[in-house]
Amino acid sequence: MKQPFERVVQTHGLSVLRVCRALLDEHRAQDAWSETFLSALKAYPQLDQEANVQAWLVRIAHRKAIDELRKHRPETVQAEVENGDGVHASTPAQNLENLELWQVVKTLPEKQRLVIAYRYLGGLSYAQIAEVLSGTPEAARRAAADGIKNLRSKLNEAQTPGAKR
């Protein structure tokens, strides 16, 4: 028996948001997250009971993020601020904590960026990533390793005084 859709959102909402944030700025990520779950809500009744719900949602999120990129070029990273009205917004401290990492992740080649997002933010296995990206698990594993190596190199370069940018 399938879980109620509300439970699906509670269980996988954060993973989907992380995937969206790896591809988009905070505002656009929220839009893509909403669009992902609106689409998923419509299709959920027809989803096979044996389907991997997380992989299915990540695939939808990927497509919605691409739609957002197409609608809103060029992409910019923007920090939201607390508005005092109780409206959800992240604080500057929260944004600054991850801003450098997000900026570096966004400079990675597309396949490395996607694999890292799906693996480390979305929690998908390499086999699931290969299915989403139409590749092999080995290629996904290699892209993740290359992406992590690039991230480390770029972060070390950014922290080294006098480093070239």
UniProtKB/TrEMBL annotation:
SUPFAM superfamilies documented for this protein: Sigma2 domain of RNA polymerase sigma factors, Sigma3 and sigma4 domains of RNA polymerase sigma factors
NCBIfam families: sigma70-ECF (TIGR02937)
Stated family: Belongs to the sigma-70 factor family. ECF subfamily.
This protein's name: RNA polymerase sigma24 factor
Record gene name: rpoE
InterPro entries: RNA_pol_sigma-70-like, RNA_pol_sigma-70_dom, RNA_pol_sigma70_r2, RNA_pol_sigma70_r4_t2, RNA_pol_sigma_r2, RNA_pol_sigma_r3/r4-like, WH-like_DNA-bd_sf
Keywords: DNA-binding, Sigma factor, Transcription, Transcription regulation
Domain RNA polymerase sigma factor 70 region 4 type: 100-149
